[in-house]
Specification:
The complex is a heterodimer of chains A (about 120) and B (about 110). With about 120 residues, chain A is mainly β. Chain A has strands spanning about 5, 10-15, 20, 25, 30-40, 45-50, 60, 65-70, 75-80, 90-95, 105, 110-115. In chain A, a hairpin with an 8-residue loop joins β10 and β11. In chain A, the strands form three sheets. In chain A, strands 2, 5, 6, 10, 11 and 12 form a six-stranded mixed beta sheet that branches. In chain A, strands 3-9-8-7 form a four-stranded antiparallel beta sheet, with no helix packed on it. With about 110 residues, chain B is an all-beta fold. Chain B contains no helices and eleven strands. Chain B is globular, with a radius of gyration of 13 Å. The interface between A and B is medium-sized, with 30 and 33 residues.
Chain lengths: ~120, ~110
């Protein structure tokens, strides 16, 4: 079963608009973490934001915020005031549990294109 | 603070050959994870090393093996290369194995198997 689902293969947004990238997850572990990474064409995965399953507040990092809806098992990334440099692949990832190997399980990604 | 580095950047091999990829972890990080990212896919976990011991493995055959050295740098070895091994190989380092430890990724090694 797919653990992380990103249903938007591609998104096109006008510069300066806000954009929401969808992510739903599946786990039975009460302790987990959710991550968003940006991958430009150079290939490096750039960490954007983290949300722990027990965090009471939605995570925010500058222009990035995470809309965490635990009951719906969704962790959507919101980018405010988009910029041309935001064009890249975006991956949602989950880490289950708090012991042992901390492997990340990634979704298929969403390609975001910001138009001038 | 030096980030995660990987070498080589690109590599071309033929089917059946063996390859070694290298990763230097971020300063102070004792945990290294390796991921394979096929074209158009998300990365998939290969294995993780913590203080020179394998600390978990994904669904990859034994011909994928690794090492971690006392300075916490790491190698990924792939024997008997197959065409499907063509991918971007990403290395990530973290300070430990706690659930909230952020993994910092390197730029990757792009392997092409002909």
């Amino acid at each position: 079963a797919q653990k992380i689902t990103q249903t938007q293969p591609g998104m096109f947004v006008q510069e300066k608009e806000a954009v929401t990238l969808d992510c739903t997850y599946d786990t039975s572990d009460p302790s987990y973490g959710l991550f968003w990474y940006k991958q430009p064409s150079s290939g490096e995965m750039i960490f954007l934001i983290y949300q722990g399953s027990y965090d009471q507040q939605n995570a925010t990092e500058g222009r990035y915020s995470l809309n965490f809806q635990k009951a719906r098992k969704s962790a959507n990334l919101v980018i405010s005031a988009s910029q041309l440099g935001d064009s890249a692949m975006y991956f949602c990832a989950m880490r289950e549990g708090n012991q042992g190997a901390q492997k990340l399980v990634f979704g298929q990604g969403t390609r975001l294109t910001i138009n001038p | 603070e030096t980030g995660v580095t990987q070498s080589p950047t690109h590599l071309i091999k033929t089917r059946g050959q063996q390859v070694t990829l290298r990763c230097s972890s971020q300063s102070g990080h004792n945990t290294v994870s390796w991921y394979q990212q096929a074209l158009g896919q998300g990365p998939q976990f290969i294995f993780q090393y913590y203080r020179e011991e394998e600390n978990g493995r994904g669904n990859f055959p034994p011909r994928f093996s690794g090492l971690q050295f006392p300075n916490y740098s790491s190698e990924l070895n792939v024997n008997a290369l197959e065409l499907d091994d063509s991918a971007l190989y990403l290395c990530a380092s973290s300070l430990g194995t706690s659930g909230s430890d952020e993994q910092f990724f390197g730029p990757g090694t792009r392997l092409t198997v002909l």
